[in-house]
């Protein structure tokens, strides 16, 4: 089968598999949303939804890799993009799949909308635990205050105002907000990237990326909003620094790690020689215009839970086996920084090149990839930090392939998604894969990225000028 057809078939299977799980009703992958939920109420088994999600993710990964190969043959993913956008709309109208994070978003928004403080009041104590929205939060997050930034909290509050007392309506308002952001990002990317080859590559890796559409948008994660805002920062930075600052504020004000895009933009501007005081001031003004009032509203406790969460270690990261073997957690941050430095060294020369947008995207890609590969706490949807910049950076087939394979296998480690509702067999298999296999997938991905980067670095090294041969007598 030609790569283009394989890409299209993989995308279709990916979207349909994910949608089938969402439409089937509450399960080990889909928490109940209460009255008004647009599902069939079939209550499928944890085994069935796990198989469907695994097929969906593997098909999505295969579609992405086949599409990348088809691009080298001159393929333009127009119909592929239309199918992806149709799938995005469909997944938005169905219940989110793969976690219960959206219930936490609804709860934090509800608390803020009713005048409470989501950074102080956990969902299980708000309104005596009797509120119809906050009481829907699932374990283990019932007693956890918000870890999201003030801008994200305000947007969650806006969704809550639209949804009122209904969990389903609140989640739908949130999903529609994410869909609008995704469409805005896709349109902005298409308008900003004029070169046909570069646009096709960017649309495949971002706008129509089946893994991002399912794991991110299909899971209704806040990372979608932050990722689109980070993408907007890159697209606007060169010519519209004020608006780039506003976009950056939305990204960072939702999730702190998205500050990587600011570092990428500034370092690229410095390397390109167009870093000026006026440009910096306009960008900073745009960011402060949003961040200052948002933080004044949020108060002094906005980052309490963020500091607590900084010591968490998820199961499928490189650090989990080391921590279980006795590594002090104080070594985690230096270790992450060391990984980031290694990835940056390996890939700087092959990736940070081209025009201003390409250089900024390249630096941001290095920071994001290093952070995700070396972070102590990492989940599949966190990859939205990476794929926007990667889509705009210089073409690197080896790096793209390695990161696509990593995301596919990492996403499989978090199937079906919820911490309850699994049969003993499914729990044994999925948690076993996550705990025993996941860390070694992460280690293999890190080693592969560094080795491929060193190889690519040597390939792009400037050849030394040939020494002149002495003239023969």
From TrEMBL:
Name the keywords, alphabetized: Membrane, Signal, Transmembrane, Transmembrane helix
Q: Which Pfam families match?
A: MptA_B_family (PF26314)
Q: Is Membrane one of the keywords?
A: yes
Q: Which residues form the signal peptide?
A: 1-24
Task: Spell out where the chain crosses the membrane.
Answer: 48-68, 80-98, 147-164, 171-191, 211-236, 243-273, 279-298, 330-348, 360-377, 384-417, 437-456
Task: Tell me where on the tree of life, at the top rank, the source sits.
Answer: Bacteria
The protein here is known as: Integral membrane protein
């Amino acid at each position: 089968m030609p790569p283009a057809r394989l890409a299209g078939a993989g995308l279709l299977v990916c979207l349909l598999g994910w949608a089938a799980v969402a439409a089937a009703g509450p399960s080990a992958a889909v928490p109940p949303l209460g009255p008004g939920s647009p599902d069939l109420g079939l209550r499928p088994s944890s085994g069935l939804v796990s198989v469907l999600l695994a097929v969906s993710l593997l098909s999505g990964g295969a579609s992405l890799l086949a599409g990348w190969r088809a691009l080298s043959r001159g393929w333009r993913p127009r119909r592929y993009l239309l199918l992806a956008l149709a799938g995005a709309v469909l997944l938005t109208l169905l219940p989110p799949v793969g976690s219960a994070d959206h219930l936490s978003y609804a709860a934090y928004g509800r608390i803020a909308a009713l005048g409470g403080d989501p950074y102080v009041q956990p969902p299980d104590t708000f309104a005596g635990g009797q509120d119809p929205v906050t009481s829907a939060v699932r374990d283990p997050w019932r007693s956890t205050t918000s870890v999201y930034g003030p801008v994200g909290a305000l947007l969650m509050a806006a969704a809550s105002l639209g949804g009122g007392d209904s969990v389903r309506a609140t989640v739908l308002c949130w999903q529609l907000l994410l869909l609008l952001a995704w469409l805005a990002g896709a349109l902005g990317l298409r308008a900003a990237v004029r070169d046909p080859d570069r646009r096709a590559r960017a649309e495949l890796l971002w706008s129509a990326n089946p893994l991002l559409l399912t794991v991110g948008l299909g899971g209704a994660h806040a990372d979608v909003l932050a990722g689109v805002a980070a993408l907007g920062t890159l697209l606007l930075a060169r010519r519209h620094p004020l608006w780039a600052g506003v976009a950056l504020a939305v990204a960072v004000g939702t999730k702190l790690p998205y500050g990587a895009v600011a570092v990428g933009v500034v370092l690229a501007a410095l390397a390109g020689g167009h870093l000026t005081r006026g440009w910096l001031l306009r960008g900073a003004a745009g960011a402060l215009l949003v961040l200052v009032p948002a933080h004044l509203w949020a108060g002094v406790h906005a980052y309490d839970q963020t500091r607590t969460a900084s010591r968490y270690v998820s199961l499928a990261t490189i650090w989990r086996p080391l921590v279980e073997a006795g590594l002090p957690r104080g070594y985690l941050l230096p270790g992450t920084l060391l990984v980031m430095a290694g990835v940056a060294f390996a890939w700087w020369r092959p990736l940070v090149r081209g025009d201003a947008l390409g250089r900024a995207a390249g630096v941001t890609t290095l920071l994001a990839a290093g952070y995700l590969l070396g972070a102590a706490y990492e989940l599949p949807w966190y990859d939205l930090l990476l794929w926007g910049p990667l889509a705009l950076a210089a073409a690197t087939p080896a790096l793209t392939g390695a990161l696509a394979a990593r995301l596919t296998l990492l996403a499989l480690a978090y199937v079906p998604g919820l911490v309850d509702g699994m049969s003993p067999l499914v729990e044994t298999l999925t948690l076993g894969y996550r705990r025993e296999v996941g860390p070694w997938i992460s280690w293999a991905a890190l080693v592969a990225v560094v080795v491929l980067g060193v190889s690519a670095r040597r390939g792009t090294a400037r050849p030394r000028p040939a020494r002149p041969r002495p003239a023969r007598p």
